[in-house]
């Protein structure tokens, strides 16, 4: 599902035509819908599980399941925690798009660097960032 989405995205980047854009949008909507369905199914099963503990007055398992669920809802995952896709590499257009979406004049980021530095860093900065993101993805760690 995601491989198809990524394939269509790369095809769109190679040739930005209305038909490829429509195919990409359609595929994105399908992926989002399926993901929502999967999330709803999981959430429903988890709710049934927690309710069964409550019905049996099993407070230990009830609170354990509820707390675990809450903890998972509030955890933030970074791209480094995802499984690397074979053959995937950060692309310069992806990095340029991300840099373009940064807000100017805001506080320092987590890395201690202003967004303006990235925006005005030029092609060499973008190239080095692309290489850094690729390394982070492959090594699943921040160097």
TrEMBL record:
Protein name: Reverse transcriptase domain-containing protein
Region described as Disordered: spans on this chain: 70-90
Provenance organism: Elysia marginata
Domain of life: Eukaryota
């Amino acid at each position: 599902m995601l491989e198809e989405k990524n394939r269509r995205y790369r095809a769109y980047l190679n040739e930005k035509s209305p038909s490829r854009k429509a195919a990409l949008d359609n595929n994105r909507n399908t992926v989002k819908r399926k993901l929502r369905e999967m999330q709803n199914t999981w959430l429903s099963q988890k709710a049934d599980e927690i309710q069964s503990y409550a019905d049996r007055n099993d407070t230990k398992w009830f609170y354990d399941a509820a707390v675990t669920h809450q903890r998972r809802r509030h955890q933030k995952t970074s791209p480094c925690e995802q499984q690397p896709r074979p053959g995937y590499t950060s692309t310069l257009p992806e990095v340029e798009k991300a840099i373009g979406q940064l807000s100017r004049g805001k506080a320092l980021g987590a890395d201690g660097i202003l967004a303006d530095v990235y925006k005005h860093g030029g092609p060499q900065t973008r190239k080095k960032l692309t290489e850094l993101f690729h390394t982070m993805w492959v090594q699943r760690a921040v160097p």
